[in-house]
Amino acid sequence: MRISTAQMLNAMQQVMERNYERYHLAQQTVITGKRIQRPSDDPFGASLGITLHRLLQESEQYQRNLKTAKNFLSITDVALENLNDLVRQAKSLAIQAATDTQNPEGRAAIAQQIGQILAEIVSIGNNTTYGDRFIFGGLQTLKAPFSVSGDTLVYHGDHGNLNIEVSPAVVMSVNVQGDPLITGIYNAIAQIKRYVETSDIENLSREGLQELQNQLDNLLRTRAVVGSKVQQIEMIQQRIEKRHVDFTELLSSIEDADIADAITRLKMAETTYHVTLATMARLGNLSLLDFLA
Asked: Which phi and psi (to 5°) does residue 103 adopt?
């Protein structure tokens, strides 16, 4: 059976198109550095790659969440440390005021110092922020959580927990509500101030100092909880970072091309494609000669 020149040209056209596609894919492999250019190149690898990309995106989100949670708790801990110092100062002043040798003028000066401590407590409550968010207002983070009415501290926040998902199925509350923590401290010190101002040494020595110690103990427990959460976050960060590295390496082994091999394949595909073009050109010339003959 005789094959016409037209049939040969049609067959060569199909070969040329296939060779061009191989050449184009080889080019893309070298340019992108990726072995899989389309799902059909490696269906299983492509499917696994999609899963790994999703897991890496989740890992990156958890890393951002962990950073936010740690920063939030670290800022909180600094504020709690400052509150702790103020409570201890108030306790020291209360003990001074409770001594029998202290005269009314001395107690008045102590009461004034305690008043300054109260103002600093309010300042900590209202000026401790993460970005533009107030830390001690519960979920009411867009407005200052405290105001003073007379000798009473008014809380404008709520008692909601600010929860952050720090790893799969692990949600952590990262905020400390200003009430009852800061309101309790403020009220205890305000009562101390009233005892000092009225020279009520008996209640100052008994109820006042005891309540102040209770608030100090509660503050220390709160700091311990915050510190424990920071440690937990750091351990989770290590696990998430390791998982991120493992996923990245696995994805690279699936998707990344061997560049040296890819360049070799590109040169071969280029040569094959150009040979096909040259053959097509010769067949075209033969076809023209046949027509002229």
From this structure: -90, 170
Query: CA–CA separation, 247 vs 70, rounded Å?
Result: 24
The tokens for 167 are 């790893």
Single pTM value for the model: 0.79
| 3-state percent breakdown (helix, strand, coil) of the chain, nearest 5 | 75, 10, 15
Token look-up 């101002």 returns 197
Sign of CA dihedral 72, 73, 76, 77: negative
Q: For 255-287, how does the pLDDT look when each residue is reduced to its tens digit (9 = 90+)?
A: 766 566 656 765 776 677 666 766 666 665 655
Residue 100's identity, in one-letter code, is D
Cβ distance 46 to 35 under 8 Å? no
State the Cα–Cα distance between residues 193 and 89, nearest whole angstrom: 13
- Quote the CA–CA distance of 115 and 186 in Å, as a whole number: 10
Contact 125, 182 (CB under 8 A): yes
